[in-house]
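Researcher: Structure for this, please.
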Amino acid sequence: MAFQLALTGLWQVRARTLTATRLGSARGGPAMAHSTATNGFQAPRRALLHCTPNSMLKDAWAKMLREAGVDLAVYPDVKEEEYAAVQFFICWDPPKEIFSKLTSLKAVQLQGAGVETVINNPDIPTSVPLLRIADPLMGQRMAMWVLWAVLNTVRKGDIYYEAQRRREWAKNTENWNNRDNSTIHIGILGLGVMGRETADAFTALGFPVSAWTRNPRTHKGVNNFSGRENLQAFASQTEFLVCLLPLTPDTQGIINAELLSWLSPRGPPLQRG
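Model: Predicted structure, token format:
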């Protein structure tokens, strides 16, 4: 699914850039010069794939992209003079200096839901779109992880596990004080694909859920807060804080000592992403 979404994004941008190139050529503008920056290449490499060193999916991505008809080079097996022909860059956490070599770049397709690994790179022109993957399956996986983390903490799963290893019947682990879901307040920073899926998972089980976003948003069953001026009000009713914000200059350092001091003392913050 992630690969299919990435491919769709690239073809949509390709359609737009080809139109721009035709218009530019007709009026003799920058687009024409841009499209002829690959003189001397009989078969220019139009797409470049970069995967993190520990990625097990590089071969799978390359195989599927080539089967879909993409003219592909795979980093680091790229000659220095070939970088200038690259128009589409598919990556996750690439070397920052690589973008200065991609002088014909039309679009950057990230292999995940965030853009924090490239958004602050000054070598990427502001005219180049950054495409990210919004896969419902990613949201579902994220929601399940957060749900497990909360339930494991509230129900003292780790303590029960250790008791089981010791072969102890630990009846007093929860002190006969099982808490209902309706008394456990979940607060989510961010209400994108991941945040909405996570909110839905908790509201379906009867947890009260609040969400904070930089700009006003609404989502069914969620108590919504927005803007820095409402961050304390959001945090003060939050027992479990879940951070699903992208890492950008606007969100850098948002989880700090002050924010943590506003939280309800019962639950720990949960960072995922």
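Researcher: Any notable elements?
Model: Residues 218 and 224 are 6 Å apart (CA to CA). The radius of gyration is 24 Å.
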